[in-house]
Each structure stands twice: as C-alpha cells, then as structure tokens.
Known about the structure:
Keywords: Iron, Metal-binding, Pyridoxal phosphate, Thiamine biosynthesis, Transferase. By secondary structure, the protein is of the alpha/beta class.
Amino acid sequence: MGIEDQQAAIDAEHGDPEGLPVMRARFEHNGSPRYMLYTMKRLGLDHEHGFHLDFELVSDELEGEVETVEAKLQDGEADLIDIDYISTARERAEGAPIVAFYPYGRTVGGLVAHEDSDIDSLADLQGKDVGVVRRLDKNWILVRAATREQYGFDADEAATPIEAGSKVELTRMIREGEVDAVLQFWPIVPEITETGPYEEVLPMAELVQDLSGTDNKLPISTFLTSEEYLDHHRETARAFASAYRATVDRLVEDDEPWEVVGEKLMTHDDPEIVRAVRDGWRDMVVRDWDEETIDGMEELFDSLYAIGGTDALGVDHIPDGMFRLLE
C-alpha cells in the first residue's frame, strides 16, 4: 500500500486539536511505529491523555547521511521520531541537539535469502553480496560484531555489503536476484517470505540478546525529540508516554486493532502476514524503561564497540545527556 493511501487512512482519524498541545510526529511509511501511532489516533488515546498527535508519514530514504525522519527533527519540522540509539549517539556526538526520551522496541531486522541459497548461518556470508540499507545500519553492525566474535572474520571484509538506500530497494534487490541476501527490517520480512521462495535465515534480535549478555529485552530504537522541545514541552512528552503505554496495552491484548491495521496500512492484507507482523511486534515492543534498561543499552554499545570499534559503529561513545528519563 502506497504512502498516499496510508496517509489518507491516518488523516481520516486526525480530527481537530481542540486546543490541546500539538506534537508533530514524522515516521517512515514502512516502519512499524505507524501501526501503534495510527491505533493511538483511531482510538483517540492522544486526546484522552491530554495532547494532539499530528501524525504524518515520510519516505525511508536518506537525506545526505541521515534518514528522512532524522532530517525532519534536526530541521525543526518534527517533534517526535524514532531511530536506533546507535544512530542517535552518532548524530548527537556530531552536535545534533537530539535526545532519546522513551523506549520503542527491539527494532532490528532479519537476514533473508532465497530458499535454495547455501546461506544457512552468518558463517556462510563469506564471499556473498549482502544488501543493506547502509553500512552504518544497526543490522549490519550487529552482523559484523557477531561474525568477528563467533567466526573470526569481519563480514564487512569477507562479504560485500551493497547499500540500497531504502527498505523498498532492499526488497527489490533480493526479489530480482541482485544480491545473495538482504538485511531487511523485521515487519517487511513476512511480506517477502510469505509471498515468495525466501526464508529468514536469522533474526537479528537473537544477536542483540547474545551480544548484550542479558535476558532483558533491550530497546534498540527509541522515541526522539529535540532538547528544546523537551525543555519547553516536557508535560506533552509525558502525555505521549502515557498514551503510548495505553496503546501498547491494546495492541498486546486485543487482536481487533491489528485487523484494522492490516486493512488500512499493510501492503498485503493477508491474515498470515498480519498475524506474523502482530506477533513480531508484540515480541519486540518495550512498554517502559528505567535506569537498569539504559545501563543494559550502554553495555550492549560497549560490547559492540569492543568488537567492531568506531569503524563499525561510526561513534566511540554514547554522549552525555542522550538518554532522558521523564521524571
């Protein structure tokens, strides 16, 4: 389903701000947060918790070296986005006044290959062409760290990463046989494997847990805003967090919202795909966080850095003040 059709479904639920403080949310048209944000709007949970969510979809392409949503936030055109916290660290270290104020989830992808491929594990990536959104994508960082630790080679050197620039292009590349495998974002994996002769070789969530050394489910992506917005609109940020928790509860406990999401937002309104995405979302979402969660995220960063270094992560530390608990 195209971005225009999805936006039309969202706009049908927008309504009037009714004098409430407005939070401008800009999210990728094929990213999983759109399921949650659309449900929040449809159920009126933003107004119920005291703010108006202005929700628009944008492309998943890069603008320069950053994702479109990140460019929107840095240019002052958005108050709320989500990206992985390694990218957040990279941009904040370069001077971007952005902060992570609430968790979203373990939003990583999966290694997908043709069913007839000889790729059965990360060890088989040597000599293969692997499609990635970009070399600094979190999924490729995880693969590089894991191949170094588990198999004694760096996938960036032993394989050939081919940057696609977008998730849409990744799907095209694997379907047209231009690469041996792709690291695709998790909600798109079922669309590929359920509609063609492809299989998920390895979910990246397994690498997250292996490399973090903890059984706690760690968020990889977080909700971001600007320092200025958080300084002046902390109560609105708290209201969003409350609405988010309420929306997560509905999506975890009730199947009905997923039926609507499948109809209104998914390219393939196939019950099998909808159920796969629903179950995957429930497994990856993080409802809340605390200091212990953030400590775990920092430990995972340190583990990845120890294995891959600045070359893999693009940054050598998590900048001070990047994580902000809404106390």
